[in-house]
Amino acid sequence: MLKLQTLTGLALVLCAASVAADVMPSWRDGASREAIVNFVERVTKSGGDDFVPADDRIAVFDNDGTLWSEQPLYFQLLFAMDRVKALAPNHPEWASKQPFKAVLENDMKALAASGEHGLIELVMATHSGMTTAEFEQTVREWIGNAQHPTLKRPYTDLVFQPMLELLDYLRDNGFKTFIVSGGGIEFMRPWVHEIYGIPPEQVVGSSIKVKFEMRDDGPVLVRSPEIDFFNDKKGKPVGIHQFVGRPPLFAAGNSDGDLQMLQWTTAGTGSRFGMIVRHTDAEREWAYDRESHIGKLDKALDEAADRGWLVVDMKRDWKVIYPSP
Amino acid sequence: MLKLQTLTGLALVLCAASVAADVMPSWRDGASREAIVNFVERVTKSGGDDFVPADDRIAVFDNDGTLWSEQPLYFQLLFAMDRVKALAPNHPEWASKQPFKAVLENDMKALAASGEHGLIELVMATHSGMTTAEFEQTVREWIGNAQHPTLKRPYTDLVFQPMLELLDYLRDNGFKTFIVSGGGIEFMRPWVHEIYGIPPEQVVGSSIKVKFEMRDDGPVLVRSPEIDFFNDKKGKPVGIHQFVGRPPLFAAGNSDGDLQMLQWTTAGTGSRFGMIVRHTDAEREWAYDRESHIGKLDKALDEAADRGWLVVDMKRDWKVIYPSP
After folding, report:
1. Residue of A132, A200, A244 lying closest to B200 (CB–CB)
2. What is this model's ipTM?
3. Neighbours of B139 (CB within 10 A)
4. Do B243 and A243 make contact, defined as CB atoms within 8 angstroms?
5. Contact A185 B245 (CB under 8 A)
6. Which helix (H) or strand (E) holds B140?
7. Mean pLDDT over all residues of chain A?
8. Is the pLDDT assigned to residue B18 strictly greater than 70?
9. Of residues B132, B242, B243, nearest to A241 (C-beta)
10. Which of A310, A317, A262 is nearest to A38 (CA)?
11. How far apart are CA A273 and CA A252, in angstroms?
């Protein structure tokens, strides 16, 4: 009987060890993976000082640069540019009007010169004036067919395998995972459930105003060319508050656009976890931080040390970047 | 062997019958209860024509008049009035300024005369100018201590027992339940999880603008006296779209404020269910519809027959109204 107990105990120990090694297998053994696992074990250990009930285990993730790549431009801007090209036959005036002319001529310099105002104009021209159902269908078709301009792969191949594993690991431990992105909420919802396992109602993002209309063939929601909410920087804690109703336990981002989200999350009482994905791998992905126009990481990097946020170094910490094809 | 199979079969049949009788026990046997159960069985029957995967089983519920009572005034207005009284010592000017004077003197006629503008002023004065954490605490204290003016019971006793059972029944069948209310989102979130089993992130409501501020002792969100979104009438489908990202399968309301939500829900493809709670029981609750200032039910009642929405008659369909103390 004693022998049987010993054997059972040994089997349990072996099982536990093998589970731990299976956790996030694309992360190299080291301080980053260990910090995440330690945190999750602390907040899920029943009876422990840091225990948090499952209902309050909220984890939020930025999308661009945190869950998938964002170079050479945010993928949603590449979508807007593809839409300008597709819609151009109905808009002869675009041939001579910026920023549309720049897009049609692939003139990135002129596009950059149009500034933030130009980009908003591009987004409004391509993201409004249709019903929500029509826009959803357009996004579905694009995401299913479009290819990244330099990597020549579908955009949904360019998600970070280690982050997919982190999402799974958190959910396996009772966390509810949310996206909190500066990107358009309706640009993400049609595909994130399949790709990240995050359902549409757990996506927080920027939005344009939508209006209810009763048409002859039934009610529709129409997308208006007017910004409703900009879910970036100081907007992120506001967006989290609006959609989730309480501060998260865990937040991951990669740029100064995530600074206030990280501050808000880690200022909460009890154990909290802030994490920054640092793009350090010019060979397998891209390397950029303080000087980048996309995903600039400067102030948040300075604050990370003071506030105890984990800075994940892609090159050092991740065995692979993208899922194997 | 045959006998054993027969016995097992019989036991299964008996179990099934007893489960059905246990479903929503506060609903009287009859067409209303039957219509709900039939719908749920159709959309959850694997392989059936009307089957809907669990991920898409979204049910939305209005709050005031649908999940709890709303007479003699929306309970949130009674909260605002209690707050005016509590804050009055710091606001000597209110003694001579409407609509505050009316509240302090319990002059309902003068309060009604201040109209919608007056009510918004009351809400802004009592719902803004503090952090989100402070407001949450105020709501928690009020809901835990305040009493209904005529029934002299806590407000959370005035929820509808048959609706609690409907929420449970839908969740037991894989539905995700949301509140979609014209009331303030932050007025509901502190207590609805405990009372209705609906977590804060599944509450859609009206909101005021909230701003991120970094203070010396850390980041806070401050409530501003400015309306952000009015989640009523045409706003309800917009709010559902914003928070849930797709049309629900099931919607329940009780007034013309829910008309567009019911239209939007039941216009979807496949099986959909629209339901109206009709206040017909002057003895156990209140009786009101077309002429009421609170919870006016007129157009939606006219449309119910054409569109096949279930009209639940409180007096006829419900064995009890409130949970037993």
Report:
1. A244
2. 0.92
3. 21
4. yes
5. yes
6. helix B132-145
7. 93
8. no
9. B132
10. A310
11. 8
Residue B47 CB contacts under 8 Å (≥ 6 apart), including other chains: none
How big is the A-B interface in CB pairs under 8 Å? 86
* B214 in A contact zone (CB under 8 Å): yes
pTM of structure: 0.93
pLDDT band (50, 70, 90) for residue A17: very low
- The pLDDT score that the predictor gives to residue A20 is 63
> What is the rounded distance in angstroms from the CA atom of residue B71 to the CA atom of residue A122?
49
Contact between chains at B200 and A242 (C-beta distance less than 8 A): no
Confidence class for position B36, pLDDT limits 50, 70, 90: very high
User: For the segment B243-257, what is each residue's pLDDT rounded down to a tens digit?
Assistant: 999 999 999 999 999
Contact B67, B160 (CB under 8 A): yes
Rounded CA separation B87/B103 (Å): 12
pLDDT tens per residue across span B209-268: 999 999 999 999 999 999 999 999 999 999 999 999 999 999 999 999 999 999 999 998
Largest CA distance in chain A: 87
Which DSSP category does A219 fall into? E
Q: Which residues of B touch A189 (CB under 8 A)?
A: 245
CB neighbour class for A139 (10 Å; exposed up to 12, middle 13-18, buried from 19): buried
- Confidence bin at B168 (pLDDT 50/70/90): very high
Which residue type is seen at B157?
Answer: D
Sorted by sequence, the CB contacts under 8 Å of residue A187 that are 6+ apart come out as: A76, A79, A127, A139, A205
Pick from A204, A232, A246, A307 the residue to mutate for testing the B interface (most B CBs within 10 Å). Answer: A246
Ordered DSSP codes for A47-114: TSTT---GGG-EEEE--BTTTB---SS-HHHHHHHHHHHHHGGG-GGGGGSTTHHHHHTT-HHHHHHT
Q: In sequence order, what E strands does chain B have?
A: 58-61, 176-184, 203-215, 218-229, 250-253, 273-278, 310-313
DSSP conformation class of B159 = B
Q: Is B53 on the interface with A (CB under 8 A)?
A: no
Q: How far is A201 from chain B (nearest CA, A)?
A: 4
- Could you write out the DSSP letters of every residue in B294-324? SS--SHHHHHHHHHT-EEEEHHHHBS-SSPP
Which tens digit of pLDDT belongs to each residue from A302-317?
999 999 999 999 999 9
- DSSP label of B175: P
Cα separation of A292 and A286, whole Å? 11
Q: What is the arithmetic mean of pLDDT over A270-290?
A: 97
- Establish if A260 touches chain B: CB-CB under 8 angstroms: yes
